[in-house]
């Protein structure tokens, strides 16, 4: 059986991106970053193969594609406060006209242009 171990995001500035994602998610470096690669784990993850998705940042020589074909959904109990916090860390709002009227998410992008959604889960019931 497969499970998601690591989501890899391409970046141009690994220091800036690492600072953003460590602050955004409270993740820590698995080991010392190289010039072009770092893996970030949840702070309480006991081993590299324990449950809990990690994020890796990989320096690439090509620009981001828009719209991206993959993005992260980050769940928030207090969506407004999390969006403010992420914007203060360097995230940017995405000017996007595709929101449905009842959207429970807001699209942002990190310091490198990788998009992610901040999803309001405060009123959600568990899915079956």
TrEMBL record:
Q: Which PANTHER family match?
A: CONSERVED PROTEIN (PTHR35908:SF1), HYPOTHETICAL FUSION PROTEIN (PTHR35908)
What is the name listed in the Swiss-Prot or TrEMBL entry for this protein?
Answer: VOC family protein
* Pfam families tied to this protein: Glyoxalase_6
What positions does the domain VOC occupy? Answer: 3-121
